[in-house]
Structures are given as C-alpha cells and as structure tokens.
Design a protein that fits this description.
The chain is α+β, with helices and mostly antiparallel strands. The protein is built from four helices and nine strands. It folds into two domains: 11-88, Roll (2,3-Dihydroxybiphenyl 1,2-Dioxygenase, domain 1), CATH 3.10.180; 99-169, 2,3-Dihydroxybiphenyl 1,2-Dioxygenase, domain 1. The relative contact order is 0.16.
Length: 170
Amino acid sequence: MTTIKNYPKSFSHIGLTVPDIHKAVKFYSEVMGWYVIMQPSTVKKEKETAIGQMCIDVFGDDWSEFEIAHLATSDGIGVELFSFPHGIKEAPEFNPFNTGLFHFCIQDPNIEELIDKIVAYGGKQRMPIREYYPKEKPFKMCYVEDPFGIVFEIYTHSYELTYSSGAYSK
C-alpha cells in the first residue's frame, strides 16, 4: 500500500484591512516590532501594469484606489495592510461561530508586557491571561484586539511546543 505524503506548506502572509494605514503601520511596527518592508503607498485602478490588473482581478471594478503597506515578522511571515477609502471603518462583529477567518496568533514570551503595550496603543485585552497546562507547562495565552478591532491571540510558546505531548512532560 502506498501512502501519499503531502509536504506541509509554509505560511507566507496575511492580509488585514484597516481604517487608517499609517496608524496601523505605527501600531504593528512599534508594538509588535514587525519590519516595515514597504511604506504605505497608493494603488490606483488601471490595466497598464501587472499590479493594476491583478488588483482589478482581486477586487473587481468597484474601486478607484486604495493604500497598501507590507510588514514582516521576525520569522519572515508577511503582513499586508490594506486601507480602502470607501470601506466600512468599524470592526466587524466578533463571531467565531461563523465560517471565515477567526483570528491569527503571534508569539511572545513576555505576554504581560506585550498586552500592556497593546492596550497603551489603543487595543484591548479580551480576556485574562490563561495557562494551557497549569503546573505542567509554562504556556500562556490571551486574546486581544488591535486598535481597529481585529482580534488576535498571543502565545508564550510555539504552536508545536504548546500542543505536543512530549513538551515539558514529566
């Protein structure tokens, strides 16, 4: 019998729509420490360039321009920020029960300090910091929001360590 092994794909980037791209770049670069690899710039709807045509393919015809910026995490994951002038500027209602993107997660061993910084920049702490395996593993987590209402999670340890049975086992 043959087993087809599918090689795990790597994560490239996530795209986030924000109401104010300059404020978002400031938040994510100063609070998260993410590298700004492309400052905010304006993309106009046009068919003369590959990027212009690609954006029409993705967004359709009901737009004239938007702003975009690119950041990267310490492990090379991209964060693509979009700001559309005529989009709704309020965060969507938090509803993890509906199909769609629920959250993303970042990792920082000093979860308390990061949450304090998120709150100082206008974000929110959505719950108390919790331990996954109290008295077994030193792993903590917490859900927070950025200043725009985008919900994300913070882990103190890697995903693999958090869920592997051998990590910190007695």
